[in-house]
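Structure ticket #2291
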Amino acid sequence: MSQSDVTHTQATNLIHHEPIHLPRSIQPHGVLLALSPQLKILQVSNNTQEFLGKEPHHLLGQPLDTLLNAEHVKAIEQSSQQEGGCVNSFKLSIQTLKGEQYFDSIAHRTGNTVILELEPTDSLKQISFLSFHALAGEAIAKMRNTSNLTDFLHLVVSEVQKVTGYDRVMVYQFDQMGAGSVVAEVKREDLSPLLGLHYPSTDIPQQARELYKRCLLRFIPDINAQLVELIAAENPEMHSTPVDLSLSVLRSTHPCCVEYHQNMGVAAILIIALIKEQTLWGLISCHHQTPKHIPYEMRKICEFLGQIVSLELEHKVNQSELDYKIKLQSLQADFIESISKAGNFREALVYPKPRLLDVVNAQGAAVCLDNDITLVGTTPNIEEVRTLIEWVDSQISDNLFSTDSLPKLYLEAIAFKDNASGLLLLRISKVRRYYILWFRPEVIQTVNWAGQSNESIQVNADGSMTLCPRVSFELWQETVRLTSLPWKSCELDSAIALRNAIVGIVLSKADELAKINQELERSNHELASFAFAASHDLKEPLRGIYNYSNVLLEDYAPRLDEDGVEYLQTVVSLSIRMETLINSLLRLSLLGQSQLNLQATDFNELLHQVIDVIRASRSPAQLDLRISKPLPTIECDPVLVSEVFSNLIINAFKYNDKPDKWIDIGYLDINEQVEKGLLQQQQQTSVPVVFYVQDNGIGIPEHHHQTIFRLFKRLHSQEKYGGGTGAGLAISKKIVERHGGHIWVESTVGIGSIFYFTLS
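Resolution: structure written out below.
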């Protein structure tokens, strides 16, 4: 086990609950006031005389307007009414014994307390947009033009150092266990490099990492400065309940953090959080060897740069991952196609050899079909694989299992670590002994640690353990063995996709294989994301076309001839229709990304709600809706299923030219399913409910029974049967399939149609 594993295991067992967000003190470069919802001063920092010319006890219990003018009090009051987590800042002035003093004011609400922080500044003048652009614009432009992730991170530290002037600026990336490493660095020439060094998770504990997710910037201008105590009014409640300073810019520094940075020789720090997909990906960490103060506005620029870096980081990491996913998907598609065309299943899997390895980027594989084992590439020998499979049979029940350190779980694997320190196992069938095992060799790694990380764990006399700041940060190297390169999530996805395809082939169901391939296409996240992004981005220029066309019609119509006016009116009409189509595309793409809200749903109540909504927009005389028998209660997403019924019912009335229109809604019981050939007589358990919506409308030709479920597919011109986009059935099909069911139609032209669907 590596040092990082030991450290993490020990650290997670420590009893370390000290609430670092409730410090009862602040840093000395500003003043903090804790206010009641009525803006009465409940707590103040014990340095108000220095900054405000008033002793703390003269302020406690007083309304805020004894300190600030009405305009500033009004601004603070508005901040107090906003949701917790919303921080507001503005400049203000206060008359003191030294004359008029200027401050940056930062206000936010936490629970029932309003936190007001005041930092002295030179004037009330704010940084202009042009000044801001001069500081940040060039850096942002360079970042966006850099595609390589490594180059991007090195550019980030360089640009942040230009803006801030710190001696050292680093990008620190966290791993899944909370440990981290320096992946980019720019520094003063005489400082020792930290690039490439690793740090244990205990260096930045979980509590601190959670605070970085909430408060994106942490500023400590003087790590050695004397902290300032918070003084409360004579109120027992305030004494017993410290104020939550999670979002405070002046929040004091924990003694452990102070000692840690003193040991590093650092006197001032600025930390900017990097968030990727709502997770703390890393930090931009700025160190200075001497105390260094940065004005609040400059820090907000740094915070803004951090947010831009986070967005670009997410894009660049995702793009890199997407390129690799697309490569795997292409290899996978070719491999599946070759399997589907092959006569011999085993040979199709292993020949040509590279394909089976490439779909998960492995160096070796073993295909086990009952007692027949075929080896491909670099693998353990047949007997070692056979014994490994016996261990798998007894220890692993999942269809997919992966590890990058098999010898730590299965000691016998030490004998073949050179070929198989990493294992990816795919169980194709639980009935038969069908497996694919992929192998990766041992990769001996030298991990450069910034000191021995176990120094941060102090063992007490009673055997308990305490976290403490480390003293040494000298390079300490650790050799990690019995480990392969880790398996990526997209490689696991590729293995699962391969299993789904193989199941269809093993069962000799060509139509099942086609269905699985279609499902793979429908579940392709990148395609759904592209459809969403493309349709979302189309809206803005489309609104411009619509708005400018209306302006031309309203302001320039007298200058146009009849043809010109007609052309513009056509542009407006087409813009409206285009927006409707885009909205439908957006709806369909969102359905593929959102999670189902499954719950037990009474379909009688659900259907009555749908009918009430439809009746509200149509004449009651037009609606002859029949429900043949009480409907069951089943588990589904009621909002989405309501949309299915609504689409089917509205279509049934829309495409009906009979004088007496009717719709029958119900479901097929088991006997009715048997009669219609949907169910075999012996199948009596786990039978899905088959719902139907029947009408006496115009009917649908048989050759269109599949095409009607395609997006934007209409069988009639836009002018007939009330128009529409042709998206309703495609959306309904998507909803049904998200529930694991399917939808189909039986119809006779001139007689009517019956739409059936299941939800499992």
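Closing remark: Confidence is low (pLDDT under 50) at residues 1-16.
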